[in-house]
Amino acid sequence: AARLSGGENRLVSLPLSRIRVIMKSSPEVSSINQDALFLTAKATELFVQYLATYSYKHGRGKEKNALTYSDLSHTAEECETFQFLADILPKKILASKYLKMLEKEKRDGEVGKGDEEDEEEEDEDETVGDAGS
């Protein structure tokens, strides 16, 4: 709970001091009004509540009576409203699977790079051939 200006007792679950630190970390912010701080905290709480509720209702959490990380990551990936969170809530994969993906990307990158070099060599050959005509 936090007591703010106006003598009203307003309840917020998130620590206002932490929210203030996060807001001040932006170079564009010089000072923070108490009301703006409270509204940001309350909006954040409501957003997190909405994300959790949506993820629970549309995930496997209902079956287990629990909200899981995979429910959250699935929501971030599948729901257009939450797609901006896809990088923050990526799907979990095994380290071995990730290493295989990296190896495949590396091989694909080398193949792609080799193709570009072949094209450059073909271009050079054509230039030389044109000059001799």
UniProtKB/TrEMBL annotation:
<keyword id="KW-0597">Phosphoprotein</keyword>
<comment type="subunit">
    <text>Heterodimer with POLE3; binds to DNA. Component of the CHRAC ISWI chromatin remodeling complex at least composed of SMARCA5/SNF2H, BAZ1A/ACF1, CHRAC1 and POLE3; the complex preferentially binds DNA through the CHRAC1-POLE3 heterodimer and possesses ATP-dependent nucleosome-remodeling activity. Within the complex, the heterodimer with POLE3 interacts with SMARCA5/SNF2H; the interaction is direct and enhances nucleosome sliding activity by the SMARCA5/SNF2H and BAZ1A/ACF1 interaction. Within the complex, the heterodimer with POLE3 interacts with BAZ1A/ACF1; the interactions are direct.</text>
</comment>
<keyword id="KW-0548">Nucleotidyltransferase</keyword>
<dbReference type="InterPro" id="IPR009072">
    <property type="entry name" value="Histone-fold"/>
</dbReference>
<feature type="domain" description="Transcription factor CBF/NF-Y/archaeal histone">
    <location>
        <begin position="13"/>
        <end position="74"/>
    </location>
</feature>
<comment type="function">
    <text>Forms a complex with DNA polymerase epsilon subunit POLE3 and binds naked DNA, which is then incorporated into chromatin, aided by the nucleosome remodeling activity of ISWI/SNF2H and ACF1. Does not enhance nucleosome sliding activity of the ACF-5 ISWI chromatin remodeling complex.</text>
</comment>
<feature type="region of interest" description="Disordered">
    <location>
        <begin position="105"/>
        <end position="133"/>
    </location>
</feature>
<dbReference type="GO" id="GO:0006261">
    <property type="term" value="P:DNA-templated DNA replication"/>
</dbReference>
<keyword id="KW-0539">Nucleus</keyword>
<keyword id="KW-0808">Transferase</keyword>
<dbReference type="InterPro" id="IPR003958">
    <property type="entry name" value="CBFA_NFYB_domain"/>
</dbReference>
<keyword id="KW-0007">Acetylation</keyword>
<dbReference type="GO" id="GO:0008623">
    <property type="term" value="C:CHRAC"/>
</dbReference>
<dbReference type="Pfam" id="PF00808">
    <property type="entry name" value="CBFD_NFYB_HMF"/>
</dbReference>
<feature type="compositionally biased region" description="Acidic residues">
    <location>
        <begin position="115"/>
        <end position="133"/>
    </location>
</feature>
<dbReference type="GO" id="GO:0003677">
    <property type="term" value="F:DNA binding"/>
</dbReference>
<dbReference type="InterPro" id="IPR050568">
    <property type="entry name" value="Transcr_DNA_Rep_Reg"/>
</dbReference>
<dbReference type="GO" id="GO:0006338">
    <property type="term" value="P:chromatin remodeling"/>
</dbReference>
<keyword id="KW-0238">DNA-binding</keyword>
<dbReference type="GO" id="GO:0016779">
    <property type="term" value="F:nucleotidyltransferase activity"/>
</dbReference>
<feature type="compositionally biased region" description="Basic and acidic residues">
    <location>
        <begin position="105"/>
        <end position="114"/>
    </location>
</feature>
<dbReference type="GO" id="GO:0046982">
    <property type="term" value="F:protein heterodimerization activity"/>
</dbReference>
<keyword id="KW-0175">Coiled coil</keyword>
<protein>
    <recommendedName>
        <fullName>Chromatin accessibility complex protein 1</fullName>
    </recommendedName>
</protein>
